[in-house]
């Protein structure tokens, strides 16, 4: 029996989300606010894993050039126009790509594990996530949970 994965994916809410107005708006807003310093947007968290429950929000990571300082003013500007998809709040977070050779943080381990690149200018995000995923597959780090939250530890 042959399975048509394309048809199955079309029914996936993540595919609908990726093509939704809030995502298009986030891309347009980030491009307008940050210009060439905007590298792309990654969906992560429960929505990327297909584990959304009642009360879940949509987590988007806006990846910026390291020349843009990550501070509260970025969030204040963004929060002036909150968005939602199907009644779920779209939460935007900002980050710089981790440099090559840098120790993998728990945050970027989660992004590498579950993140879905929704938009990128060039291929820097996809390339870096591929490198980080190879590092995760090496087994050097283990994913554990503490109080329901993921944490990454050096493997024993």
**Number of H- or I-type helical stretches:** 7
Helix content: 25-40%
Mean pLDDT: 83
The whole-angstrom Rg is 16 Å
CATH class group: Alpha Beta
Number of domains: 1
**Beta-strand content estimate:** 25-35%
Question: And the CATH topology?
Answer: Beta Polymerase, domain 2
The secondary structure category is alpha+beta
Categorize the overall geometry: globular
**What is the tally of beta strands?**
7
Brief overview:
This protein has seven helices and seven strands; from the N terminus they run H-H-H-E-H-E-H-E-E-H-E-H-E-E. With 156 residues, the chain is α+β, with helices and mostly antiparallel strands.
From the structure above, extract its key features.
156 residues, alpha+beta, Beta Polymerase, domain 2, 5-stranded mixed sheet, disordered N terminus
Explained architecture:
The chain has a single domain (5-154), classed as Beta Polymerase, domain 2, CATH 3.30.460.10. The protein is 39% helix and 28% strand. It contains seven helices and seven strands. The protein has a five-stranded mixed sheet with strand order 3-4-2-1-5, sandwiched between helices. Helix 6 crosses helix 7 (124-137). The termini are far apart.
């Amino acid at each position: 029996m042959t399975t048509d994965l394309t048809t199955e994916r079309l029914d996936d809410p993540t595919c609908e989300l990726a093509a939704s107005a809030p995502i298009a708006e986030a891309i347009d807003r980030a491009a307008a606010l940050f210009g060439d310093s905007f590298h792309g947007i990654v969906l992560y968290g429960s929505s990327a894993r297909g584990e959304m429950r009642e009360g879940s929000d949509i987590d988007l990571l806006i990846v910026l050039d390291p020349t843009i300082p990550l501070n509260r003013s970025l969030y204040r500007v963004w929060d002036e126009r909150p968005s939602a998809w199907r009644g779920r709040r779209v939460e935007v977070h900002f980050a710089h790509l981790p440099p090559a050779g840098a120790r993998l943080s728990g945050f970027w381990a989660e992004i590498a594990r579950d993140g879905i690149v929704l938009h990128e200018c060039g291929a820097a995000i996809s390339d870096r996530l591929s490198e980080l995923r190879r590092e995760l597959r090496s087994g050097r780090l283990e994913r554990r949970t503490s109080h329901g939250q993921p944490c990454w530890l050096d493997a024993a």
